[in-house]
Amino acid sequence: MTDWSVFAIINGYAANRNLYYNNNIITEVADEWSKDSKNPSKKLTATNNRYKLCDDCLTYQVVNYKQFSNGYIICSKVKSGQKYSDTCLAELDFYNEKTGWCFGGYLE
Known about the structure:
Blueprint (H helix, E strand, L loop, with lengths): L3 E7 L6 H6 L2 E8 L16 E4 L8 E9 L2 E8 L11 E6 L3 E2 L7
Antiparallel strand pairs: 1-4, 1-6, 2-3, 2-5, 6-7
């Protein structure tokens, strides 16, 4: 198992501002960080770390994990879109100091 220390996220339909605001926007994610967990509970508890996301950012937001995470991410809060009720997560990548970015994507 890899200890992810950072994740980078594009939290909406980020092709352009019109599509971004017309669709739901993820404003908070939580992680399922139990070290021995192989399946996420899909339930938010007091033990989940929560990360607020900007709802006006069409590019990567980089977030440092508060503690070890096994990589499960739960969308815990969503802002309603102006026209549609679907939610898009454009990109997600995880970083580890030993191996770098999991999907090789985010460049600072």
